[in-house]
Amino acid sequence: MMTILNNSLASRSIKAALCAGVIALLAPSSIRAQLFTFSKQDLMDYTAQEPFDRLPDGRPKVPNDLVERARELASEEVWAVLQQKGFNNQYADGFKILRPGKNMVGRAFTVQFMPLRPDVEDIAESKAKGKGVLRLTNQTAIDMLQPGDVLVVDLFGKKVNGTIVGDNLFYYVMKATGSGGLVVDGSIRDLDGISEIDMPAYFRAVDPTPIGNVMLTGINIPIRIGGVTVMPGDLVVGDREGVYFIPPQLVKEVLDQADEIHIHDEWTKKKFAEGKYKSSEIYSTPSDPKLQQEYREYLKRRLEEIRKKRSPK
Amino acid sequence: MMTILNNSLASRSIKAALCAGVIALLAPSSIRAQLFTFSKQDLMDYTAQEPFDRLPDGRPKVPNDLVERARELASEEVWAVLQQKGFNNQYADGFKILRPGKNMVGRAFTVQFMPLRPDVEDIAESKAKGKGVLRLTNQTAIDMLQPGDVLVVDLFGKKVNGTIVGDNLFYYVMKATGSGGLVVDGSIRDLDGISEIDMPAYFRAVDPTPIGNVMLTGINIPIRIGGVTVMPGDLVVGDREGVYFIPPQLVKEVLDQADEIHIHDEWTKKKFAEGKYKSSEIYSTPSDPKLQQEYREYLKRRLEEIRKKRSPK
Amino acid sequence: MMTILNNSLASRSIKAALCAGVIALLAPSSIRAQLFTFSKQDLMDYTAQEPFDRLPDGRPKVPNDLVERARELASEEVWAVLQQKGFNNQYADGFKILRPGKNMVGRAFTVQFMPLRPDVEDIAESKAKGKGVLRLTNQTAIDMLQPGDVLVVDLFGKKVNGTIVGDNLFYYVMKATGSGGLVVDGSIRDLDGISEIDMPAYFRAVDPTPIGNVMLTGINIPIRIGGVTVMPGDLVVGDREGVYFIPPQLVKEVLDQADEIHIHDEWTKKKFAEGKYKSSEIYSTPSDPKLQQEYREYLKRRLEEIRKKRSPK
Amino acid sequence: MMTILNNSLASRSIKAALCAGVIALLAPSSIRAQLFTFSKQDLMDYTAQEPFDRLPDGRPKVPNDLVERARELASEEVWAVLQQKGFNNQYADGFKILRPGKNMVGRAFTVQFMPLRPDVEDIAESKAKGKGVLRLTNQTAIDMLQPGDVLVVDLFGKKVNGTIVGDNLFYYVMKATGSGGLVVDGSIRDLDGISEIDMPAYFRAVDPTPIGNVMLTGINIPIRIGGVTVMPGDLVVGDREGVYFIPPQLVKEVLDQADEIHIHDEWTKKKFAEGKYKSSEIYSTPSDPKLQQEYREYLKRRLEEIRKKRSPK
Amino acid sequence: MMTILNNSLASRSIKAALCAGVIALLAPSSIRAQLFTFSKQDLMDYTAQEPFDRLPDGRPKVPNDLVERARELASEEVWAVLQQKGFNNQYADGFKILRPGKNMVGRAFTVQFMPLRPDVEDIAESKAKGKGVLRLTNQTAIDMLQPGDVLVVDLFGKKVNGTIVGDNLFYYVMKATGSGGLVVDGSIRDLDGISEIDMPAYFRAVDPTPIGNVMLTGINIPIRIGGVTVMPGDLVVGDREGVYFIPPQLVKEVLDQADEIHIHDEWTKKKFAEGKYKSSEIYSTPSDPKLQQEYREYLKRRLEEIRKKRSPK
Amino acid sequence: MMTILNNSLASRSIKAALCAGVIALLAPSSIRAQLFTFSKQDLMDYTAQEPFDRLPDGRPKVPNDLVERARELASEEVWAVLQQKGFNNQYADGFKILRPGKNMVGRAFTVQFMPLRPDVEDIAESKAKGKGVLRLTNQTAIDMLQPGDVLVVDLFGKKVNGTIVGDNLFYYVMKATGSGGLVVDGSIRDLDGISEIDMPAYFRAVDPTPIGNVMLTGINIPIRIGGVTVMPGDLVVGDREGVYFIPPQLVKEVLDQADEIHIHDEWTKKKFAEGKYKSSEIYSTPSDPKLQQEYREYLKRRLEEIRKKRSPK
After folding, report:
1. With a CB-CB cutoff of 8 Å, which residues 108-147 of chain D face chain E?
2. Tens digit of each residue's pLDDT (9 = 90 or more) over A107-129
3. Of C81, C240, C280, which is closest to A195 when you measure between CB atoms?
4. Could you tell me which chain F residue has the CA closest to the CA of E137?
5. pLDDT (mean) for B90-111
6. Fewer CB within 10 Å, N- or C-terminus of chain A?
7. Does E270 touch chain D (CB under 8 A)?
8. Please, which residues have CB within 8 angstroms of residue E61's CB and are 6 or more apart in sequence?
9. CA distances to A87, A96, C262, C303 from C257, in Å
């Protein structure tokens, strides 16, 4: 069902070759295997706690309205809930960030690569042929993306030949996901071109070489990005600091607490601006019971306003 | 005299808890000790060479007009005078810089943290109680800040749990110092929120965790930032490169030399623009005695103009 | 023929001294030797493959119109041709980049420094005197720059005292090269001042100290920048990722392929925007022979248009 | 069939607890999941090129006599054959090496860990219960080891809480494998105790904390160590430089070439010791055809001797 | 009371000068201030929990027999007790270790240096003169060492000019402490000479320059080594992995647990050697209640034997 | 005059090929150019201050008896004299050291490599052919080594393909120099084999790949190793810390001062052992004039003894 264009991997250099009319010369790309099995049923089993619908590929589908609300989230707000729930390994940082002022939000679509071994690759290929199916490539993965997805790729930190996309594929990802975003524990190329495309991206490095010397070993399987085990369908939230991968079952709680935190900040700044209090008299908990009471009422009123504003007319 | 709000340290996560109404649940914060004694008299003794007034807390008070003039200083100009005087350890770099285009100038207000030891902490606390005083916290330190201060914090390069402020406390620092600034050999959190607040900041890293696993061991004592011994009241000057800590007694000389350097740059660029000279004929010392004379006259005239402009009417 | 102004090296600190009227006090600078011989004839021999004219100093002169066309090049496009030709060591990265959005293009003017040895320096100086010539300094090098040059300096990654220019010399380089650019495997100073001058620059670090403890050992000799052997006259192309040094004989081919790549990108994006195809059906090679044909015609037409537009009227 | 002793993971600290009689207090360990499926059939399929027998668990069994011959191999000899065959990703280095003078040889037994996610872990556990089987732990993995194995563990470079063994488990691994060896992209603990046990080990770091905050996600599945995809049953060869993972089908060729290289070294050193030749006249290829002939005869004779010596009487 | 020999700091280079008869030429050393006050009473207050005697300088004196028992401790055994007690910041690693096979044990004698500031130094000096006392130097600190001490020095990781001792001073430290040991967050010099002296040492780097450009700011005050707050009198335990600083009040418990751990290891290895059990059946807790009972009896008997052996006859 | 054996560069891998009888298949090696001219006269001019004889190739020849005396030198003793003379850049460290307990001493034989450029290489080759001479290779350099030399190689820190020798070439270097030694700012291969050969070596890394992708650009020219400009004929002294490159004209003075330093150490340790003095009373300068006098007499007597012992009978 899926067309293979392994060639696509080597983008620019291939384009160069292509332009010169040497299509036939293209060596078969080195990125073809899906080594690990993680079936749609496996995926559904291992994400059974999620309370929402699912995407056709089996991933949890955090609803669109929650995805939109998540656009205002900051890392700190996510941290607060996750550590209370015992999820201490959901944050990755140390990335270069393409658009520091533009937060990234979306559902994780995961891809895994491993270092190339010709023997494993050959067998994967003949296994595929034996079943009459075509092998998966990074471009097929890109063709599978859905609106609202963030492409999350484990390229084990590889810089040279670890470039998941150049500006062309980045453009396709942007179109397919509706500017969802990209997280790659690896590199990108064509940074000049990519800088003109409006989609957030988190990457380790930039290099002019095309992807190579690797094999695609899994699509929508559990992967590791830094110290995080990322599950397909996790809500990905990226800000100026780093990226959080929120299990779907915790999304609602994170967002509701964030509402209260926003209101708390509003109120304490407002009080401080009145000039009557020292910071420590208001923040984080007002010492005066009367002020505490005032805050609680403010909180209640503002929460109601927010909910009203959000409810469909 | 001072109110304790240890809770303030864990800002966001605390706020989350707070919002949920669990005020009583808050564990007493782990940041409370002032281990080192450095009395107001010590401070005055060790900064005895400073020629200006003092702040109520004993710190040297570089006058406001000199602070303002220092806003135009570049690291290189500070370096020139300091190395002549034998001060080779007054510069720190390697920071992430919040506002590269906006220089930071102010008087150093120093704070020191050390790794938490429960036994030391317990004793510090009971010592405080024994004297009927309250223990110092990072928020009390913030409440002590004066207009024109820069908050300088030794958190020994700690990233996780080494976040001196989030956006709320950063906002209070901004208000209290009049956008003075922050230097922390440690980290900050809420970078998104902080980016919207107009104050310069120099820090090592960003992390979503609140401050923790440390104890406050001194306020306005000598501290170390990188390779610099910072004294309370030092004039802090930060630009796109790094941060200089200028002993008060050298401030006037640095500023006067900077005036001459600015005039020298003005003149050499003007001469070069005339198109009659090679760079090496003008810069840094003109080879032609006639040009030297011309420069000396230009320098004299411009210095007079500048001084006139600065003198109060 | 050349005037020595060794003093110029210590820029700001010297300026400070100068302003204070202590010209006579200036110690003779420590940067004076040209240790390596690489004659104009050597230079012409080792770049004999270049097909263009030469600059008066013997360097290949890539024509101005090609330099202009190169302004649109991205690293990836250069990579494609160079690796086909077996040039695998022409790319350097890991720089701090002054103006990420403004590409750098120009002809390499190379300068080499080595760590100071007083004995070698003394002999180089007396050798020079014996021949009745003056010694070369970094400022003489700057006076030798031509419009269209990029100054490329090997300072072996030195940070402290490895500052090739401050804002004054950077200004002269900008004027002399017509905003050509600077690449230094070393550092710069006066970043605040330099940020206001409109010229691209690639450097390893920023430091307030003036250049020192080094000796100038060669001008327009082959030098090493990262993993690249740079020849005088190489076409230097810098973008947001890093810097390519293109041997003159390969410039034309790189540019022509880049034209085809630009057209290819144009066409695939246009087709994708039609909404009729999956990315893998168009990119990089269309799978449908009819589409391939369509592309080939589009390519031919667009190439003709471009060439027409470029041809002098 | 397998007994769970999750407790075993926290070795020393647990032992401490145990000794104090607090067995009941032990929290269930956090290391229990096998997330990825890679069946015995998968394993046999993906290693189908191997020419030898198999171990009961399906791994290729490089014969004992070849394992013994491999004890003399150096990294360089492996490199020569592997790169000829297009296997460029079989070498990992950057390890701390327990016994630099004692080479490591054996068959890869692979184990994979990922960062802990409580939701994934819970489901893995209930899945296991549902099937009436027990969950795998690192100690069960250790109990599965065979004589001649090298335990190869992906702990994603984790230092704190990434300690695969302390001295007790290291002792068991030594006993079970017959001093086969350990490679861990992670850390170990009890280095003092381990130093007294006679088995080679390659690790990234040493730390006193027990393993934790991770989940076991696979046993004898393909794993990644540095830039290598390691397959179960690969011949692991470690020397003073690093570790090679040799696909079984290439073992024989590597060993036969190594024989010739050893003889070549023998002969060139012998010739050089005669004092009649410059190194370049003998090494690597003698320039004199007569010497070439002499060498070829020497090679033939020595190979025969070696083979004779090896053949069973 | 104390003699100043600032000159001693520059050891070798000074010695060179000395030998040449240029004693008078010696510039006054730059290491003289004690900036921080931490009185004997402060020290006793902040270590009030320790249950033992004190040294004349006020430091807790862990008894000699416990110091001797601690010689068998491994980092892991210390970790187990300390984390139970909530002391998570007592371990430092990343050192170069002079004698990996020889554990270090002793009482912490702490020294702190900070980057030199001529103004602070001058005032410290005149303060000292005003009181008729001499200033402290690193050599005076060395003269204050007691048998059983480990010299622990904060030189803030300084390499060049951060060399606390050369072979002569290292020899004196060895003599004064009875081969106690040295931990320096800084460097040493004369590694060749030091390698011949039988005392453990932990340091960051080696450099030929003498100590300089720093000032001694405290002796036997709380200092920071890596992530540890070290108190004077802490029991310092160094093995092949790193260094633990054990608060005196926890020493007894650590040692008693270590006894049980040693016995536990003895027993499990003995059982495993019987060949009747899988590792997981014995370690860490035997699954069979009968084996548990057997172990408990073994433990009891062995503990008695050990205690008997230790008790004075 | 010189024979080319480019093949030699790829040592082991070539050997592997060779053994398989594929001599003809060998691609011409990529290491052939001598780009920089530094004639014998240049060499003699730039080392004119050296007071000794010269080797036939023009390098200064520090006499054998001084080379022998230098075997006892430690880095610190060299540092003392060199910094007095204003030579601050003669020390390099950060190497892996093959034989930490065995000091290295010898005369520098320098070799420089740069990253390969096919165009420069081609021209160098045809230039060589035009003059009827053969191109230099790393093995020719090795054949030029003299007894007492240390091979010093600039491979710009290259690890992969930056391996100057494997065990065979290391063996030849050992034979040719009489175990002189090797310093390479690059890597080596065959560490197992090299470990069995008795010669000191200082290198950055170890890798199994043969040297490649570089060109030899100079033999016995000034080169850079770390922060040092090394001149051919410098006395190279390596100990456990790093490597000093001593200009020949300073060797005698360094050695004479070292004699005095050794005597000084002898005396102070002897006095300290008497138990009558505190370290600060003896070291570095005795405070008591009587002790000073005693030391001066001891020094005089011991110097005479040493000189007597050294003088030829």
Report:
1. 137, 139-140, 142-143
2. 999 999 999 999 999 998 888 77
3. C240
4. F280
5. 97
6. C
7. no
8. E52, E53, E54, E55, E107, E233
9. 51, 30, 9, 11
Indicate the SS3 state at residue B237: strand
Q: How far off is chain D from F212, nearest CA to CA, in Å?
A: 14
Q: What residues of A are in contact with residue C93 (Cβ under 8 Å)?
A: 206-207
Within an 8 Å CB–CB cutoff, is residue E287 touching chain D? yes
Distance from CA of F299 to the nearest CA of C (A): 32
E265-300 burial string, b = 16+ CB within 10 Å, else e? bebbbebbeeeebbbbbbbbbbeeeebeeebeebbe
Q: What is the pLDDT of residue C34?
A: 65
CB contact under 8 A, B228 and E86: no
Task: Give the model's confidence band at D30: pLDDT under 50 very low, under 70 low, under 90 confident, else very high.
Answer: very low
Q: Is E85 exposed, middle or buried (0-12, 13-18, 19+ CB in 10 A)?
A: middle
Cβ partners under 8 Å of residue A56, min gap 6: none
Quote the crossing angle between the two packed helices F251-273 and E167-177, to the nearest 10°.
10
> C interface mutation test: which of A2, A7, A15 has the most C CBs within 10 A?
A15
Could you say which of D101, D265, D287 has the minimum Cβ distance to residue F5?
D287
State the complex-level ipTM. Answer: 0.89
Per DSSP, the residues of C183-239 read EEEEEES-HHHHTTS---EEEEEE-SSPS-SEEEEEESS-EEETTEEEPTTPEEEE-
Q: Tokens 């060794």 identify what position?
A: C6
Tokens linked to E30 = 């730059």
Chain B residues near residue C19 by CB distance under 8 angstroms:
257, 260-261, 263-264, 299
Six-digit token string for C256: 């022509």
Note whether D31 and D9 are within 8 A (CB).
yes
Contact between chain D and chain C (3 or more Cβ pairs less than 8 Å apart): no
Q: How many CB pairs under 8 A join D and E?
A: 120
B96 phi and psi angles, rounded to 5 deg: -80, 140
| % of chain D beyond a pLDDT of 70 | 87
Cβ within 8 Å of F, D 213-252: 239-242, 244
Q: Pick from D114, D122, D224: which is nearest to A229 by CB?
A: D114
Strands (E), chain E: 53-54, 60-61, 91-93, 96-97, 104-115, 149-154, 182-188, 201-206, 214-219, 223-225, 228-230, 235-238, 242-246
Q: What is the pLDDT of residues E69-99, one digit of tens each?
A: 999 898 889 999 999 999 999 999 999 999 9
Q: Is the pLDDT assigned to residue B10 strictly greater than 60?
A: no
CB contact under 8 A, E115 and B86: no
